[in-house]
Design goal:
CATH architecture: 3-Layer(aba) Sandwich
CATH class: Alpha Beta
Number of strands: 12
Order of helices and strands: EHEEHHEHEEEEEEEEHH
Number of helices: 6
Largest sheet: 6 strands, mixed
Bound molecules: glutamine
């Protein structure tokens, strides 16, 4: 078995360890004897997207996002088709904002999004920074997702969220929602990187991709003691009871 993992704009969208998500996906596939092909995609490295199994788009500075958006708009249709066809997408922070309709950045520039979802993100005064703990709504065990967030943008929507905020800010610091889920497309503000200390989330994405491609319904278990030690350490340090 093999998976094609597209890393979207690695040169422009890669904040707070986002690259670690690619390393994690790749390693967890390899530990199970699944070949993972990492395919970088960017302005000066355009490759067809049709055959992708997993698409990863990291977070970006307002500067990086302003460069990416005009290029990305040329891929609006194919990305929408892939999402509808249940390809796996993980979009972090700036990448998550891009899946929506618009992002008004800190300077007031209107950065168009892919309009796959109709939500808006607006940069309001003060950045939302810190460690974040949420309760996932995907039914994954453990229930918690841990990460780090740093964004000026506040995202507002009625989509299904990825999690409920227990500690931190999430989409906007107001409605307790974090991220969004549609089919196999996930948007989230969790950097850190997200996947190495949330191995249940990493395996959820890998299994969805393998299920779509090969009909697989179960993954071989791995020894995740180290990964969950990191996960629990974050819970220990930042849980509300502390
Ligand atoms: N530039 C965006 C914001 O500040 C996204 C930041 C990020 O990807 N961490 O909201």
């Amino acid at each position: 078995m093999e998976l094609k993992i597209y890393h979207m704009y690695p040169d422009l969208l890669n904040l707070y360890g986002d690259l670690g998500n690619i390393t994690c996906l790749c390693q967890r596939c390899e530990w199970r004897g699944i070949k993972a092909h990492i395919i970088p995609f960017s302005k000066d490295r355009e490759v067809p997207l049709e055959e992708g199994d997993i698409f990863f788009m990291g977070g970006g500075s307002d500067w990086g996002q302003n460069i990416v958006f005009s290029h990305l708009l040329g891929y609006q249709r194919i990305m929408e088709e892939l999402i509808e066809d249940e390809a796996v997408f993980l979009s972090i922070c700036g990448g998550y904002q891009f899946l929506g309709a618009t992002y008004i950045d800190a300077a007031g520039n209107k950065v168009r999004g892919l309009e796959i979802f109709d939500y808006e993100t607006v940069s309001e005064g003060g950045r939302l920074i810190g460690n974040i703990i949420t309760k996932n709504v995907l039914g994954l065990e453990p229930e918690t997702l841990v990460g780090f967030e740093n964004h000026g943008g506040r995202t507002y929507h009625d989509q299904k969220p990825l999690g409920r905020v227990m500690v931190g800010y999430g989409n906007n610091g107001k409605d307790q929602k974090e991220g969004m889920v549609y089919k196999n497309c996930i948007g989230t503000y969790l950097h850190g990187p997200l996947l190495p200390k949330n191995p249940h989330m990493a395996d959820h994405l890998i299994l969805k991709a393998l299920n779509r491609k090969y009909g697989l319904s179960k993954l071989q278990l791995l020894d995740d003691r180290l990964e969950y030690a990191a996960h629990h350490r974050v819970l220990e340090l930042y849980s509300p009871t502390k």
